[in-house]
Design a protein that fits this description.
The chain has about 475 residues and is α+β, with helices and mostly antiparallel strands. Helix content is about 35%, strand content about 20%. The protein has a seven-stranded mixed β-sheet with strand order 15-16-14-13-17-18-19, sandwiched between helices. A six-stranded mixed β-sheet has the order 3-2-1-6-12-11, with helices on both faces. Strands 4-5-9 form a three-stranded antiparallel β-sheet, with no helix packed on it. The chain is globular, with a radius of gyration of 22 Å. The relative contact order is 0.13. The chain binds beta-L-fructofuranose (LFR).
Length: about 475
């Protein structure tokens, strides 16, 4: 029996999960050890991650597990992409971990991107334009005249920072490094010229390594020392590694704070069609590319729930399912939803400015979001079909958002495709799976998917006839065409 711990950091909630893998039966069991809230904090006028809080929760939970006498064969950390931490020569943290939701790049990213030439950038990196890509964050940092800027010796992506805190070793996982927008998508090497253009130093980074690599050991005390093995440290890469995708005609949606809709491809897709659709080509755990589209997902719902603290997501979904569908629609990727001071006001303003009725309740607001997300999934799938030449006959939804039966059903109805949901804890499972591959307990990526498919429950949703669908699609297109979400 192997026991492995995944620290899975999400933008709003984080989990420490313990998995048991039985090599004889090839079965996996997962147990939640601890779940804690993650939130943004304002520091020196910027929106930051509370690194001390995260580190404290991680270390306290891991130590408690060891003290209880749990045998642990390995540990690995994954989190959202693009965000990073700067270290000095002695390995001390410099400044804060500024969040990708901070506005510091919103203006400058477009200017810098235009200056570099997006087409050239896209051909080299395969990475979508998002104002928060690490490339643009570094550029913003280099222009901030921060007093410690000259002391930067290394830049680590967030999960690798926690790996460093556990082991003292510096490591750059390929999957998360690909989200920086500074890797050559063909060679997987850092594009030094681009790094320099961002005002950064190529020496701050080193060669990336594939998930499954042993980073070092965490010496808990004189008696205990545990291997730290790199998972796919980008949560989306981990989630997709755990998605039981058995053929090329199934598209996935990794559903959480974001909805990431995509396919796996042996090569990056960087045609003008892909560029125009702002598809990204992120590095996959299994050396495949994650060709996908970012759609602002549960973030919008989380933003609504802030205004109704007594409601939980299940109640909200239940009430929304009783609302009339396709009344008001939004383009979920409109920049006004990245970090509004009030999500409710942002949706209301959007409806007013697009001549639509203003949703009058939490459930009407949520219904507007769910309908719009499903329509946006449909468009993304079409863009993926055009860019890849594939035809999809099924959708697999994984991650926390896959528990949302209303959205799963709307997705099936609007996309007119069968949907299968699960596993819910996809990022943690992908994290665990690659540690087990690193330990030699699981043979390879495909075997991992079979094991996960056989070990965890799934649920099916079949497309139904939806009367007002065509007019909703037309209305949605009118909205998304006017949104400045692409360059
Ligand atoms: C999802 C995710 C997305 C990435 C966004 C920002 O949690 O990792 O893949 O585009 O967060 O990092």
């Amino acid at each position: 029996m192997y026991q492995v711990v995944a620290v899975d950091l999400g933008a709003t909630s984080a989990r420490v999960m313990l998995a048991q893998f039985d090599p004889l039966n090839q079965s996996l069991k997962l147990q939640q050890i601890h779940r804690f809230a993650n939130h943004l904090v304002k520091r020196h006028g910027q929106l930051c991650w509370d690194i001390e809080h995260l580190e404290n929760e991680i270390f306290t939970t891991l130590k408690a597990l060891v003290v209880k006498g749990k045998q642990i064969d390995a540990i690995g950390v994954d989190s959202w992409g693009v965000d990073f931490i700067c270290l000095d020569k002695l390995g001390h943290r410099l400044g804060e971990a500024v969040s990708y939701r901070d506005a510091r790049t919103h203006q400058s990213s477009r200017e810098f991107c235009e200056q570099l030439g997006f087409e050239k950038l896209y051909q080299q990196t395969g990475i979508q334009f998002q104002p928060f890509n690490t490339l643009f964050q570094l550029k913003a940092l280099s222009q901030e005249s921060t007093e410690w800027f000259d002391q930067i010796d290394k830049v680590l992506m967030l999960p690798d920072y926690f790996h460093y805190r556990l082991t003292g070793q510096y490591h750059w996982d390929y999957t998360n490094a690909s989200t920086t927008g500074m890797l050559n998508c063909h060679s997987g090497q850092w594009l030094d010229e681009l790094v320099r253009a961002a005002g950064a130093n190529p020496n701050w980074f080193a060669t990336t390594e594939l998930p499954g690599t042993v980073i070092g050991r965490w010496d808990v005390d004189d008696e205990h020392s545990i291997a730290v093995i790199s998972p796919p440290t980008h949560d989306t890469a981990a989630a997709i590694a755990a998605a039981p995708l058995m053929n090329d005609s199934t598209a996935y949606i990794s559903s959480g704070t974001w909805s990431l809709i995509g396919i796996e491809s042996p090569e990056p897709l960087t045609s003008s069609i892909a560029q125009l659709a702002n598809l990204t080509n992120e590095g996959g755990a299994n050396r495949q590319f994650r060709v996908l589209k970012n759609v602002m997902g549960m973030w919008l719902i989380e933003g609504i729930l802030v205004h109704w603290p007594a409601l939980d997501i299940c109640q909200l979904c239940q009430q929304s399912s009783e609302e009339k569908g396709f009344v008001s629609l939004i383009d979920p990727n409109d920049p006004c939803f990245i970090n509004p001071h009030s999500m409710v006001e942002a949706i209301e303003d959007y409806c007013v400015s697009h001549g639509q009725p203003v949703p009058q309740s939490a459930s009407a607001l949520a219904r507007c979001v769910f309908d719009s997300l499903a329509l946006s999934y449909r468009d993304s799938l079409q863009q993926l079909e055009q860019a890849s030449g594939r035809r999809f006959n099924a959708i697999r939804i994984v991650g926390g958002g896959s528990q949302n039966h209303l959205l799963n059903q709307l997705c099936a109805d609007v996309c007119q495709l069968p949907v299968t949901s699960g596993p819910v804890e996809a990022s943690a499972l992908g994290n665990i799976g690659y540690q087990l591959i690193g330990l030699g307990a699981i043979k390879d990526a495909q075997t991992l998917r079979h094991i996960i498919a056989n070990s965890f429950a799934e649920k099916s949703f079949f497309p139904r006839l939806t009367p007002k669908l065509n007019s909703a699609i037309t209305r949605f297109h009118q909205l998304s065409q006017v949104s400045p979400n692409n360059l």
